[in-house]
């Protein structure tokens, strides 16, 4: 008999969880880059040739999956250099500070928060600015019970209230339009809000004997206890 699948949360900050489907999908997102030296036998993998024996010439522009970019990145040997995707550059950071709610994060980057934290693995002059925007919520003062997720201090806070308001005011409605512009972390938060609303409505109607804590909250509490014991 097959066991039920229990979703595994994403990793923390710059680290990935290889058991998390969200992190596996995020690692396929591509980064613009450049070959700083010839890359033997990688032309087919990087879409630069038809044969597995072909090499990528030095200076070639590349679109590199995150998992491969992290494997090839070496500041001492200068194998590849990685550029910032446009959504993390200064122009877009300005848009987020002006009005983050107008941005369709799912279209521009479905893993905006998690992918942004991964960019700090690479040397880039704008890393200090990205680090100021992309912060790790450790849970001590966090306003949401999601597994120590990475949130953007500016973008996330600006969007969080609207996300939770929407989740708490959409009972037995089609929510596809409400979540269409959200990244995957925001969608998970929306679902937490919806589950809380539905559980409360069932309890209020006498259809549930008691209100129980969300599994996300329970798992979060267990993890914090494990950290304290360790």
From TrEMBL:
| Gene3D superfamilies the UniProt entry points to | 1.20.58.2050
Which keywords fit this entry according to its UniProt record? DNA replication, Nucleus
The GINS subunit domain extends over: 89-203
Q: What does UniProt give as GO cellular component?
A: GINS complex
Superkingdom of the source species: Eukaryota
The record places domain DNA replication complex GINS protein PSF3 N-terminal at: 20-72
Q: Where in the cell is it found?
A: Nucleus
Q: One biological-process term from Gene Ontology?
A: mitotic DNA replication initiation
The UniProt entry's sequence similarity note says: Belongs to the GINS3/PSF3 family.
Task performed by this protein? The GINS complex plays an essential role in the initiation of DNA replication. Required for correct functioning of the GINS complex, a complex that plays an essential role in the initiation of DNA replication, and progression of DNA replication forks. GINS complex is a core component of CDC45-MCM-GINS (CMG) helicase, the molecular machine that unwinds template DNA during replication, and around which the replisome is built.
Subunit structure of this chain's protein: Component of the GINS complex.
Protein name, UniProt field: DNA replication complex GINS protein PSF3
Q: What is the lineage of its organism?
A: Eukaryota, Metazoa, Chordata, Craniata, Vertebrata
